[in-house]
Specification:
heterodimer, A: Rossmann fold, 3 domains, 12 helices, B: 135 residues, alpha/beta, Rossmann fold, 5 helices, 44% helix, binds guanosine-5'-triphosphate, binds magnesium ion
């Protein structure tokens, strides 16, 4: 992709052009040449949108809830971006993205933009990819970005962890009320949603969660609220929306958490870049093939190859390099 | 730099008939051919389809039509796409399409017409070839 094509997309996004928005998302998702530069150009116009992660077991009603929530937000004058993540097939690399099926109501609302995203399992992972898409939607001018992922894989959980507020969706019946929460998503909830409240057993799930929280959060004042909804009928969604706004304003340990989020993003981008640069160089030069062969022929072992292959990673070399970089970006230290 | 582009396809069922099977077979088949397939379900209006296609930035729209209204629906979809700067998206139509209407559809800008029972692999090959040509 040519450099000035990117410029056109970036200015299109800033000007609120939907076609530019969807094209830019594709390019960035594909990591097409120049994507990082384009994100740089957008970055200063971001940081305004609130990102809300919605996760829970398969079939819990996440998409139906996203539809209902987006519709309620729109009624309250908010513009909404939706990112619906579904897994890629590990065999074909393809994906069937079906979340839109439950979002028909808001699909033609001009204030709402829905984008389906496959996990792809690419280098650098889903997390940064989803974060980039959320940021593009932010730059486009969306007030709120809702990200739906299935709360099963570690990758999917990482995605919602970067959100400003996380909703964990549970349902009565099938034993996946509170059980599902034990798989590591319990800790990340800012709000628990017990969906399909029209079904029997919803109150038991609410009681289970509250019981669990009262043990875990003993004495803390900001225990995560539990809200009952019936996404299919819209019941409870207004109240969920109120709770959401409250949580967005009174986020827990905000400073500390922002620091952590930026830290993680820098490290994740660096990690990806290192792997990508190394792989690219080694594939081109055939170095990796030679090393594999050497190990197979018992001429070398993987452990000693690590040090032999890598560029100078000694503390001195690294610090020299970073000192130079921080100086150009932040300016000389004034001690 | 690695470029991880994937072919993205919207499978849509406009109109009032409620037979979803053909559309589903195609959707799953194209996924297994390595495409990212967005499936939006039954009874979509041309405006809904065009809007989804543009938001999802798909390379291809596959319409499944069994109701006999293929000419009218295709025409409306074309208009809706044009209104959203999506006229460049490859359009294919499948379902029950009388022989006589195939040429008319092609004149309307439909790239390929597949009658019921076409193997999915043939559709996948057609898509790959046509996108290559466009690139
Ligand atoms: N009874 C009842 N059914 C619901 C409710 N919300 C969603 N459903 C149904 O639950 C099923 C799954 O809904 P989805 O919204 O697709 O669930 P999901 O969590 O997004 O599913 P995946 O994305 O496949 O994990 C659908 O048949 C919905 O109609 C609800 O409040 N009550
Ligand atoms: Mg869903």
């Amino acid at each position: 992709m040519k450099v000035n094509d990117w410029d056109k997309l970036v200015s299109g996004v800033k000007a609120g052009d939907v076609r530019s928005l969807s094209r830019m998302i594709t390019r960035v998702e594909n990591r097409a040449d120049g994507w990082k530069k384009a994100m740089q150009q957008l970055y200063s116009g971001t940081g305004r949108a609130k990102v809300v992660g919605i996760t829970g077991s398969p079939g819990a009603g996440k998409s139906t809830l996203v539809n209902a929530l987006a519709s309620e937000l729109s009624k309250r004058g908010k513009t909404v971006g939706i990112i619906a993540v579904d897994p890629s097939s590990p065999f074909s690399g393809g994906a069937l993205l079906g979340d839109r099926l439950r979002m028909a109501e808001v699909a033609v609302n001009p204030d709402i933009f829905i984008r389906s995203m496959a996990t792809r399992g690419a280098l650098g992972g889903l997390c940064q990819g989803a974060r980039d898409v959320a940021r593009i939607l932010d730059a486009f001018g969306k007030d709120i970005v809702l990200i739906e992922t299935v709360g099963v894989g570690q990758d999917e959980i990482e995605v919602v962890k970067t959100a400003d507020c996380v909703l964990v969706v549970c349902v009565p019946g099938q034993g996946d009320g509170i059980q599902a929460l034990k798989a590591g998503i319990m800790e990340i909830a800012d709000i628990y949603v017990v969906n399909k409240a029209d079904r029997p057993g919803a109150d038991e799930v609410v009681a289970d969660i509250e019981g669990m929280l009262s043990i875990a959060d003993q004495g803390k004042l900001d225990t995560a609220p539990v809200v009952k909804t019936s996404a299919a009928t819209g019941e409870g969604v207004e109240s969920l929306c109120n709770t959401l706004f409250e949580r967005l304003v009174h986020a827990r340990n905000k400073e500390q958490w922002l620091d952590k989020r930026v830290r993680e993003e820098i490290l994740s981008l660096v990690e990806t870049q290192i792997m990508e640069s190394l792989l690219c160089a080694w594939q081109e030069s055939g170095a990796l093939n030679k090393m594999v062969e050497a190990v197979l022929n018992k001429k070398a072992d993987p452990y000693s190859l690590v040090d032999a292959l890598l560029p100078d990673l000694s503390k001195e070399a690294l610090n020299r390099q970073t000192a130079k970089a921080t100086k150009t970006i932040i300016g000389p230290e004034n001690s | 730099m690695t470029d991880n582009a994937k072919i993205r396809v919207l499978i849509a069922k406009p109109g009032l008939d409620g037979h979803e099977r053909g559309a589903r077979v195609i959707a799953y088949g194209l996924r297994d051919a390595g495409f990212e397939v967005i499936y939006t379900g039954l009874r979509q209006t041309p405006a809904q389809i065009a809007s989804a296609a543009v938001q999802e930035d798909v390379d291809v729209i596959g319409l499944s039509i069994l109701s006999g209204a293929h000419l009218a629906l295709t025409k409306q979809l074309k208009e809706q796409l044009a209104a959203r700067k999506g006229e460049d998206i490859l359009l294919i139509v499948g379902g029950i399409i009388p022989e006589n209407d195939i040429d008319t559809l092609k004149q309307m800008g439909v790239a390929g017409v597949f009658t019921a029972g076409t193997p999915v692999s043939q559709v996948a090959d057609f898509i790959r070839q046509n996108l290559q040509k466009a690139a």
